[in-house]
Amino acid sequence: MRDEPIDPCARIVVIGAGQAGFTACAKLRDLGHQGPITLIGEEAHPPYQRPPLSKGYLLGEITEDRLYFRPPSFYEERSIDLRLSSMASAIDRDRKVVALADGATVPYDRLILTTGARPRTLPAQIGGDLDGVFCVRNLADINAMAEHFRQDQRVLIVGGGYIGLEAAAVSAKLGLKVTVIEAAPRILQRVACPETAAYFRDLHDRKGVTLLEGAALETLQGEEGHVRSARLADGSVIPVDFVIAGVGVVPNVELAQAAGLSIDNGIAVDENCRTSDPQIYAAGDCASFPWRSGRIRLESVGNAIEQAEAVAWSLTGAPSRYDAKPWFWSDQYEVKLQIAGLSAGYDTVTTRPGAAGGVSYWYYRGEELLAVDAMNDPRVYMVAKRLIEAGRSPSAVIVGDPATDLKALLQ
Ligand SMILES: Cc1cc2nc3c(=O)[nH]c(=O)nc-3n(C[C@H](O)[C@H](O)[C@H](O)COP(=O)(O)OP(=O)(O)OC[C@H]3O[C@@H](n4cnc5c(N)ncnc54)[C@H](O)[C@@H]3O)c2cc1C
User: Fold this and answer.
1) N or C end of the chain: which has fewer CB within 10 A?
2) Please, what sign has the CA dihedral across residues 180, 185, 188, 190?
3) Does ligand 1 come within 6 angstroms of the Cβ of 329?
4) Residues of the chain with pLDDT under 70
């Protein structure tokens, strides 16, 4: 289905000044939208990249201003009314007005919701509200924990997903004593195969990180309000100086829900990124969209960019069907993991040894190639991504043979 292009002078309001919100505004101007664009963001900083927060920024290798997508002047030059430290508190769909927490109102002709996700927190009943317990989502989170990143500090990381493992890698590099606990039987259980998990377990082992799998947190104990130790379900106690929780995120849907929009593991959108109200779109971590025979919500930069661009194309009248081509990456120590496709539903995994110590794991459902995890093997990643995007499935025997010239499979 195609959208009717809107009046080029229509008022567009975007709620959420993160990856998707920034991209939507910039793309709308690139595509020639002339009407007012307002970008409302509750954080104090101009829109910035989150991935370096658990990588180079946490390591102290890059400064805050290098996280910004564009300098503050960009918004002025492109007539994007960027409202920082400003929270949208309600959407009046009848009057087509967004209410801000400070009492102001912003009228719209089209509204784009890019409210992202927020980290799950450890419950206060188990000590999650003690000082020294942090999560990793915003610049403010990282700035708040920065003073603890000193040699020999003992950090407990709760959660062995990508965010937790990246935080572990930075901590180990900076000389902290690092323990990661994962309640599931293995790390990366939700997102990767046992082979990828084993690869990263070995890597962290070699770097001196203590990695405990099947280890559930029972409580955090504090002294004078600051966390001092963690008790696990098996009764063991780990002394800590601070804790980082990396236990997943929940989509920010409350604004949409209160406005009566359909919610289904995120703000439900159609293949054009339109919500149940045709005047309102959603993109990025907050949006769930049709995928194969069901619905999916992705938490990745690639998805945020591509969905936001699809919205901008829709609004300016060009073909706009969002065709997800999932990709993701993670940096830990000297390893770059690049992921193409989505592995959900796989039944077998084939290993392909790569050049110079690289390796890749190829996920299949039956004969169908679903996804590839490539560790320090960017060429394999590039070919795999193209194969998956083209819907091509070379046999597992062929890709598993290191003598196969993968590029030839693209012809
Ligand atoms: C530490 C970290 C590392 C990551 N690493 C990777 C990686 O290596 N590769 C990868 O692909 N992805 C990575 N991601 C995920 C990626 O950053 C997200 O998928 C992406 O930022 C999603 O963009 P978004 O615009 O949907 O949401 P966000 O970037 O979360 O932006 C949403 C914004 O909306 C604001 N907001 C919410 N509600 C309101 C409101 N009512 N009023 C005003 N403002 C509001 C929020 O404060 C936030 O600033 C990482 C994420 C984190 C946190």
Assistant:
1) C
2) negative
3) yes
4) 1-5, 319
